[in-house]
Write a structure and sequence with these properties.
With 131 residues, the protein is α/β, with parallel strands linked by helices. 34% of the residues lie in helices and 21% in strands. It has a four-stranded parallel β-sheet with strand order 3-2-1-4, with helices on both faces. Helix 2 (55-61) links the parallel strand 2 (42-48) and strand 3. The N and C termini lie far apart (41 Å).
Length: 131
């Protein structure tokens, strides 16, 4: 594979300091599995939606690229802000308070989207909290 990541994962986040770490850990594990199994990289973009806590700092501490977006509570535009920054040809989205399931999610995304008859999809998730 090239220097360009194969998949970009966009994660919108607003005041998720308390919940984002398990999600980042699951994303890291899934990205490592993808690197081992498919030889490609996953780019992770966290879109900080004008948080007032340490969400952006925590994301940076976990090696994420952080994009700032100040128009709060417009989820589609927050996701789109991250997608505009994506370097990969495939873009996936996950909420910052959700852990990715299964660990092979990026392998599954990549494999499925190699078919010209598939252009999108979804996966299982596990909420870190219920509101």
């Amino acid at each position: 594979m090239s220097d360009t990541p194969a998949i970009t994962l966009v994660m919108p986040a607003w005041n998720e300091e308390r919940y984002i770490v398990p999600t980042l850990e699951s994303v890291t594990a899934a990205a490592e599995r993808f690197r081992i199994d498919r030889g490609g990289d996953v780019e992770l973009i966290v879109v900080d939606n004008d948080s007032t806590d340490r969400t952006a700092a925590v994301a940076r501490e976990h090696g994420c690229r952080v994009v700032s977006y100040t128009r709060r509570h417009q989820m589609a535009s927050v996701r789109n802000a991250g997608a505009r920054e994506a370097q990969a040809p495939l873009i996936a989205f996950v909420d910052s308070d959700r852990s990715l399931v299964p660990e092979r999610v990026f392998c599954e995304i990549f494999d499925n989207l190699q078919s010209p008859s598939i252009f999108g999809g979804g996966t299982a998730m596990r909420p870190e909290y219920w509101s």
